[in-house]
Amino acid sequence: MTTNLPDFVTVSRGPAGLPILEVRGAQASARLHLQGDHVVSWVPREESEVLFLSERSRYAPGEPIRGGIPICGPWFGQGRGGDRTPAHGFFRRATWEFVEAFDTGEAIAVDLVLPPDALAGVPGAQDWPADVQVGYRVTVGRELGTDLRVTAGAQPLEFEEALHTYFRIGDIRRVQVDGLAGASYLDKVAGRTAVQDGPVRFDGEADRVYTSTEPVDIVDRVLGRRITVTKAGSANTVVWNPAAEKAAATPDLGDDEWVSMVCVEAANCLDAAVRLEPGASHTMSARVSLQAL
Ligand code: TA6
């Protein structure tokens, strides 16, 4: 269990008794499940909740939480060959280990790692090299920072990754995502590639892997805010909304919850999978900020 906690971080027990780190900084608060190292809430001061969290999420050891920021890896979806299980890999299914939390002066930083012994018995993790190091820093302030760092061990390492962030919005049918115009993407619904023409708007299920390193804006006229996602070390931006039919087929997502969520994900997947030489490291970062419309 976590020890030597500063007074701005406390541990509580959430649903199913899962341990949650509660972060209370001067600029924002956040909650983070040790299972999956899963941020489930970020509330900047004088703002409302920014992350979506399903009311039907399963909270069970080893089960991914529906909403917040699932950490996908070391593969995305079913992997590049389409045959990997569990979906989106095992990073989000293991219980991560708290390392430290500290005040940067502008935000609270929380460091966690995924130790090899945390992977014992986790489905899909049996072949993961024990000398690979995985670390994650969450920075809670006026911005929400997430930095996923992977360091190869004695062997070369290839992996996919995504910070699969669910954003809380007013109505997907009145939201647009700016910043991807001209970017090519894999349209997983239509099963083809295309080039984005103007803003991304949502009319039915959208499941797209863009090739883009650019910042994107989620323009939400219902909640009156613009959510900006800025990335580093990320070649792909994934945009997903299940719409009604896929939502109805998703047990841990309420039938109508699709209206109030959109996923915009920093990722490295498919042809942009990360390849590391022995001992080399790679960090993928995403920063989230808000502006009133
Ligand atoms: O990021 C979009 C996506 O890959 C969709 O295809 C959909 O499967 C979504 O992730 C949710 O995946 P999950 O395994 O969390 O149900």
- Count of extended strands: 23
Described by the principal axes of the CA atoms, the overall outline is globular
Q: Order of helices and strands, N to C? A: EEEEEEEEEEEEEEEEEEEEHEEE
Which cofactor or ligand species appear?
A: 6-O-phosphono-beta-D-tagatofuranose
- Mind describing the biggest β-sheet? 9 strands, antiparallel
N- to C-terminal distance:
42 Å
Ranges where pLDDT stays below 50 over 5 or more residues in a row are none
Number of helices: 1
Q: What is the helical fraction, as a range of percent? A: under 10%
Average pLDDT: 96
Provide the structure class.
mainly beta
Strand content: 35-45%
Rg (CA only): 18 Å
The main sheet orders its strands as 6-7-8-9-23-19-18-13-16
Structure commentary:
The chain has one helix at residues 243-248; strands at residues 9-13, 19-24, 28-33, 38-44, 71-72, 97-103, 108-113, 133-140, 144-151, 157-159, 161-163, 166-168, 175-178, 184-187, 192-195, 200-201, 206-211, 216-220, 225-232, 236-241, 261-268, 274-276, 281-292. It has one helix and 23 strands. The model has no long low-confidence stretch (mean pLDDT 96). Helices cover 2% and strands 43% of the residues. A hairpin with a 4-residue loop joins strand 3 (28-33) and strand 4. With 293 residues, the protein is an all-beta fold. The strands form four sheets. Strands 6-7-8-9-23-19-18-13-16 form a nine-stranded antiparallel sheet, with no helix packed on it. Bound molecules: 6-O-phosphono-beta-D-tagatofuranose. 6-O-phosphono-beta-D-tagatofuranose binds at residues 64, 77, 87-88, 164, 188, 207, 238, 240, 263, 265. 6-O-phosphono-beta-D-tagatofuranose (TA6) binds next to strand 20 and strand 21.
